[in-house]
Structure formats: C-alpha cells, structure tokens
Amino acid sequence: MANPSCLLYGPGDARYEDRPLPRITSPTDVIIRIAYTGVCGSDVHFWHHGGIKRPITPSNPITMGHEASGIVHAIGPAVTTLVPGDRIALEPGYACHRCMICKSGHYNLCPRMKFAGVPGICHGTLTRFFKLPADYCYKIPDTMGLEEATLMEPLGVAVHSVRAVGVGPGMRVCVFGAGTVGVFCMLVAREFGAEQVVGVDMNARKLGFAGEVMGEGAGGWGGGYVPDGTGEGEGKRILERFGMEESEGDGFDVVIEATGAEACMRMGVEVLRVGGRFMQTGLGRRNVNFPMGTVAEKEITLKGCFRYGPGDFALGVQFAVEGRFPLKRFITKIVAFEDAVEAWETTARGEGMKTLIRGGGSGVDDASGKY
Question: Could you tell me the pTM of the whole model?
Fold first, then answer.
C-alpha cells in the first residue's frame, strides 16, 4: 500500500485500506510521514459507539486519529519554516482564518474547521502520509522524541483550559479527572502560579501518578481525593479534606472538570468558593442534570473549553521543550500500526496513561526518531 490507513466504518468495524496519497495543492502545504498517533478518549467512543456528534457509517467512514507526530516529507513552494526531514508535532485542525469567529481570535471554533478524524469533515492521522498547512506544524528539537511530541495535542487542550479560566498566582485549583488531559491541567496550573492543586478521580492509581509527576511534597501539589461513589455530601468531604469551610463560603478558586461525568460536574460546583470559576474541559453527555441554582447563588463564572486557541499549542510546546514536564512517563504502551484496536481497548480499560500507535507502513526508531 502507498498510503495505508486505518478507517472506522461503524462501531467495532475497523478496516485497513490504501487511501490516495496527499498532494501539494496550496503553496503552504506540508506532507508529513506520521510517526505516532496517540489514543484519545474520543477514539474509544468512536470505536464503541460510532461517533459522537456526527455518525460514522459504512457510507461515511473516517480515518481515525488526531494526536500525532511525524517527519516532514514534502513542502509547498511558500513554506520557509520547514524542510523535509524536520521532526514535528501536529496541531491537527486548521481553520479558514477568514470568518468573523476566526478574526475575533477564536479560530478553534471556526465553523469551517478541518479537524483530523472528524466524520464527514477530515480524515485523521492513523495513516502513513497526512497533509497540513505549515503554520500548524511545530518543529521539535532533537532533545524531544517523536513519541513525546504526540503529547503536544492534549497538552494544548490543558493550556487552553488553564489560560481561559484565568488560573493565576496564589490560587487553589481542583481538577476532576486524572487522565492525560487532567494531569496536564494540574501541571500547567502549577506553571501559572497556582498555590495548591488538588486532583479528584475514582482511580487511585492515576491519582498516584499525578502526585508523582507533580512532585509529592513539592510546591503546588495539594494531594488527591478518591470519592466514595455515593455522591451524597461528597463535595463537603472534599472541602474538609483540604481544610476549607463550606459554611463560610470557602472553597477552591478554580475547578477544571476534565472527565465529562455528570457527578463530577455537580461536585465541582459544590467545592468552588463563592465567586469561583468553573471550566468544563471534559466532553461527555451533551445534556446533563447540572446545579444551575448553586451557580447563581454562589455567582460562579461558568466557562467551556474546546480544543485550543491562539498561542495555546505553541505555549505547550515551549513548556515541553524547556523540560517542565516529565513527558516520557505519560507514555505507557506503544503498539504496531496493525494493532490499533488493541490500543483503543487498552485505553477503554483505563490501563496506563497514554497509548501510542506507530505510523502506517514503516517503523520508526524510538531513540533517533528516524525511519
């Protein structure tokens, strides 16, 4: 196959096929040979349920994947920042840059966004060759592996979440969810000056990992909390655990909800102080039972996070290049291109932190990043 690709035709129906090779059609195009694609929770949902907002069907299949790294294969005549052979992290969606939403500084919400792996919109990165405009390709230094570069996408989400909700020096931040995005939110909040960062998750092992990468006993990490699952009075117990008094309007300055679970949303509102800020980062059911009355009574600022906006991806790459975060520790499994289903099921079982799938049709040297 010239361009082997992994396509999903519906729930539980993945097929490997040869897709057309991408061609340079714009002066700023870059063709990338994919090295690794990371598995995201949305990939698991697609695999099990056949899409989220747009259905995946036999008549509307989609190449999976959007968290990716690779090596520049070819460039358009107007590309001046990259050359073939450069190692890059991919920001996997590009906007029109012409509409009013783009011009207002919210290109991530562009109605014409071409985001990798979105059914009916754009095929994904679980392929050998992928095309992207040059300004969405981030060159990485030799000190960063291509495996680590796949993490720039979830790190970009975390940067957007923390920046948009306004985390600043001295704040107390509670993050619900200790998956990859949640732990990155904890790390980025610390970089933005948070005085205390607390993690909440049903999985004690993942909270243990969060504590390790945050640095047990180091500045910023306040500890983890595992709910008992009853829901009744859980918010109050979280506040008591971290020395806050609900009756006095005390609580966290910021809550970042990174699970998409309704119960966590409700708890998040409960543990915010009066006048606190709530950021919904995790994607779950589109309609939930949410304590809007409490939001009003406590005058909570409620915000949403969708992917990443201007400067977010670049700042995440900067943090990574500067060695702020132990990225290698997030990668717990790498599978062959032909074993994508194994990767999705590994993530579905909650095993490890981040599973990667090698690029289509050819191996890559983990140490050098060279084919």
Answer: 0.94
